[in-house]
Specification:
The structure is a single chain. This protein is α/β, with parallel strands linked by helices. It has two domains: 43 residues, no CATH class; 271 residues, Alpha-Beta Complex (sialyltransferase cstii, chain A), CATH 3.90.1480.20. Helix content is 38%, strand content 12%. The protein is built from 13 helices and nine strands. It has a seven-stranded parallel β-sheet, sandwiched between helices. Strands 1-2 form a two-stranded antiparallel sheet. Strand 3, helix 6 and strand 4 form a beta-alpha-beta unit. The protein is globular. The structure holds 2-acetamido-2-deoxy-beta-D-glucopyranose (NAG) (6 copies).
Length: 321
């Protein structure tokens, strides 16, 4: 974003067409960083046509505002649903399970501006906190620590959680639940979005999170991803050529935001070990633990975001704010 090197209009259009007409595999890492760095000096403009096209395509496959969360509107008692990651396993929607779902989707009306905050080490020293908090709606992933608010902000309207966080950090919520309550309260009153019906091993702990929020009268609501939505979203991304075993929660949340928000900016999405100046950075802004190898395809997902940035359908922030 910041003007450093002067990159001419023709260089910018060359960079854009290079990114749009290539696949990530052709780049050597150093050259790739150079291209992305040079692009930072090119102006970004939203392209309404691209933006609307992207939204309409996602709407056709996935319809996030109606379908992404299990609601009483999109399920019926007695229905069986398939888990999206363990396709042979089914869940019966009993009356008591149904009663835990919100009546309607919380995303009835479009939200004007959204920030989707990934946890990449590139956020360290970004000073993006105020800009992030200035968005109408802030999505975060996996209950990240918020103790660098100058860089990452504090506003949290929705946070996803990998159930492994509940299992490992909070003893699957079978023991003292206060530590979980205290952590959630640090985020204000976000929607907590859990993949309760992706892997059957995570269903019980996800339900316990909902019971806990209920019993302690948290302002936060726990809601569940609709596995049918995730299945359709997976098929959609595979159909446009993205290769992965399991897509990341970043890609899920970005896709959701593209449907429910008018303007989307991504922060902290950067899957490389060095920043744009070649300086080594942490994997996350709060720790240096890499994800399990072989499951997600973060660089390929990143390349999608970069292409979307170039097309003007979202803004990918990689620098200082
Ligand atoms: C999503 O589904 C709802 C309910 O069926 C429908 O009213 C709405 O038009 C759909 N939206 C899109 C983008 O298809
Ligand atoms: C689902 O549960 C209901 C009771 O709530 C039961 O009547 C029905 O047979 C069950 N269906 C399946 C497929 O297990
Ligand atoms: C990050 O900020 C600290 C102080 O807050 C400063 O000492 C350090 O040089 C900064 N690092 C980078 C890479 O800018
Ligand atoms: C921020 O939070 C993390 C995890 O909660 C903790 O390990 C770390 O020491 C904290 N850092 C600062 C600067 O407060
Ligand atoms: C998923 O896609 C199928 C086939 O196009 C469609 O029938 C179904 O309604 C979709 N499910 C959701 C939750 O959007
Ligand atoms: C941020 O960068 C500074 C140096 O640039 C480093 O000292 C600090 O530990 C980093 N903090 C995090 C959370 O990465």
């Amino acid at each position: 974003m910041k003007h450093g090197d002067n990159v001419s209009a023709s260089e910018c259009s060359h960079l854009r067409s290079l990114i749009l007409n290539s696949v990530l595999g052709i780049f050597k890492q150093q050259a790739f960083l150079g291209v992305v760095k040079a692009l930072q000096s090119c102006p970004w403009k939203e392209d309404q046509t691209e933006r609307n096209l992207f939204r309409a395509n996602l709407g056709k496959c996935c319809n996030a505002s109606y379908s992404m969360i299990m609601t009483q509107e999109n399920t019926v008692i007695g229905q069986t649903i398939n888990f999206d990651a363990e396709t042979k396993i089914k869940q019966n929607i009993t009356k008591s399970l149904y009663s835990l779902f919100p009546k309607k989707s919380p995303f009835q009306k479009p939200i004007r501006t959204c920030a989707v905050v990934g946890n990449g080490g590139i956020l360290n020293n970004s000073s993006c906190g105020a800009q992030i908090d200035g968005a109408d709606f802030v999505f975060r992933l996996n209950f990240p620590p918020l103790n660098w608010t100058d860089d990452v902000g504090a506003k949290t309207d929705l946070v996803t959680s990998n159930p492994s966080i509940l299992i490992n950090r909070f003893s699957s919520l079978t023991e003292q639940r206060k530590p979980f309550i205290r952590m959630v309260q640090e985020y204000g009153s976000p929607l907590i979005l859990l993949p309760a019906f992706s892997y059957s091993a995570n269903t019980e702990v996800s339900l316990r999170a909902l019971y806990t929020a209920d019993e302690f009268d948290l302002k936060s609501k726990v809601v569940f991803f609709n596995p049918d939505y995730l299945k359709n979203l997976t098929a959609h991304w595979k159909s446009v050529g993205l290769k992965f075993v399991r897509f990341s929660s970043g890609l899920m949340v970005m896709s959701m935001a593209m449907e429910v928000c008018d303007e989307v900016t991504l922060y902290g999405f950067w899957p490389f070990p060095k920043d744009l100046n070649g300086v080594p950075i942490l994997h996350h802004y709060y720790d240096n633990v890499p994800p399990k190898p072989g499951i997600h395809a973060m660089p390929e997902e990143f390349y999608q975001y970069l292409q979307m940035h170039v097309k003007g359908s979202l803004r990918l922030n990689l620098g200082h704010c």
